[in-house]
Amino acid sequence: MASNPGVFYEWPWASMGSFKYLLLAPFVVAAVTGNDDADNWAWHMMVITFLRYVVAQIFVSLSRIHALTKHTRIQANGIQFKQIDREDHWDDFFILQLYVATIVHKLPYLGYSDFPLYNSKGLWQLLMFHVGPAEFLYYWLHRALHHHYLYSRYHSHHHASFVPEPITGSVHPFAEHIMYTAVFAVPLLGPFFMGGASISMFYAYLIGFDIMNCIGHCNFEFFPRWFMSIPGMKYLIYTPSFHSLHHSRVHTNFCLFMPIYDHMFGTVDKSSDVLYERSISGKAVPISAPDVVFMGHGTTLLSAFHAPFALRSFSSRPFEEKWWMRPMWPLCFVLAVVLRVFGRAYTHDKHRLRKLKLETWVTPAFAIQFFFKGQWPWINSKIEDAILEADRSGVKVVGLGALNKNEALNGGGLLFVEKHPDLRVRVVHGNTLTAAAVLQKIPSNVTEVFVTGAT
After folding, report:
1. How far is CA 250 from CA 9, 159, 224, 429, in A?
2. Run of H or E residues at 348
C-alpha cells in the first residue's frame, strides 16, 4: 500500500475479488450472441484483452526461468511473497481501459466508430502521437507523482516493489491509472482526428504498450550490445537496467519508454550505461553456487501449474488441485511426455537464510513415474546428472526429497555415492540428517541407544 493512501486509491471493484471478471461478461455476451456493433467492437476488445494476458504470461514465465535469466540479472534480491500478494490484481487496468475505450466508442456525436480494419497512415500517426505528446506528458506526470504529496498517497504503492517483475509496471492505485489512461488516450485519439484510425491501431498500441512495459520491469538485461550501440538508440528505447535504476534510486530515469526526455531535462541516472554493461556481461549479479540444494520432483501432473514460471499467483500458495485445472490434464500429460524425452533437473526457486544460499531443484519426473520400475533407470540418471552438476559448481550439500530418496530406487542416494566416490558434495536426505543430528547429541561414553519414531 501507499504510505498515506489518497482519494480514489482503491479500485471500484476491489471488494469483488475474482468476481471482478464478471465485468467482462457484457463484451463476451455481445461477441458470441451476434449483438455486436458494425465494428465488431466487443469481439476485438476481447481478443485484445486475451492477447494482453498472453503477453504478460510470456514475460512472467521467461523472467522466472533461472536458466535464462541467471547470466544477465540486474538485482540480486529475490521477490518476496508480500510483493506477489500486493501485485495479485495487476490486471485491473485491463478492465478500466476496456470500459473507458468503450465509453468513448459509444459517445454520441463524436463518431469514434466505423473503423476500417487497417490503415497504414494511421499507424504512423499513432507512433508520432506516442513519441511526441504521450511520452512528454507521461514524463512530467511521472515527475509530479514523485512529489511528496502524490508519492505518499499514490505512487509509493508502485515503488514498494523494489525488485520489479514484468507485471509490476501495471500495479498502481485507481486514481493513478485514471491519469495514465488520459495520457495514453492521446495516441489513440490523434489518428482519429487526422482520419487515420483503424481497428489495427488498437491492437498495435495496447499490445505493443504492454510488451514495452513488461520489458522495462524485467530483472534481467537482454538488449544485445550491437542493438544498443546503434547511434541514438539509447535515447529512443529504455532497457530493463535503465528502468531498474528508477526503482532502486527513485529520483532518476523517469521516462515511459524513451530516455530522451531524461537526457533533455537532466534526470538520467549517471550510472545507467555502467549498469547496462555490468548486467549484459553478467557482472551485476555474478553466478555463484548455492550452499545447499533440495531436490524435489513433481507430484500430480497438475502440479506443473505450481511451477513459478507457470501461474504466478497460484505458485505463491500451497499446492492444491482446483476444479478449473482438470480440463488442462491432457496438456499436462503432453508436458510429462516432453519432459520424459528432453527434461533435466531445473532450478525451481532460490532462498536465502542469513548468509546461507538455498535452492530447490526439481527432477523432470512426476510421482506416478516412481511406481514403475521401468522408469527407475531414467529417474536415477536425472538425479545423478543433477548431483554431478551440483558437485562441479561447488554446492556443499544436496538433499534428496520425497521419492527421489526412495530406498528401492537408489538406496537413499547410496547408489550415487558409491558410483562416484570422489564426490565433494554431500548427498543426504531427511533420514540421514535425523540420524546425524541424533549422533551429534549422544555423549561419547554411551554404549547403547534406544530410538523410537517412524524414521
Report:
1. 21, 8, 26, 45
2. strand 346-353
Give the whole-number percent of the chain exceeding pLDDT 70.
99
Q: What DSSP line would sit under 131-143, residue for residue?
A: IIIIHHHHHHHHH
Grid cell 505458485 is found at 315
Query: For residue 443, with 0-12 CB atoms within 10 Å meaning exposed, 13-18 middle and 19 or more buried, which class applies?
Result: exposed
Structure-block grid coordinates of residue 37: 456493433
- Whole-number Cα distances in Å, 371 to 178, 203, 374: 56, 49, 9
Helix (H/G/I), strand (E/B), else coil: 366: strand
What mean pLDDT is reported for the chain?
Answer: 93
Which residues does 373 contact at the CB level (< 8 Å), separation at least 6? none
> Is this structure's pTM higher than 0.70?
yes
**What is the pLDDT, as a whole number, of residue 292?**
96
Q: What does the block give as the cell for 10?
A: 482503491
CA 454 centroid distance within chain: 41
Structure confidence by residue, pLDDT tens digits, 311-337: 887 888 888 888 888 898 998 899 999
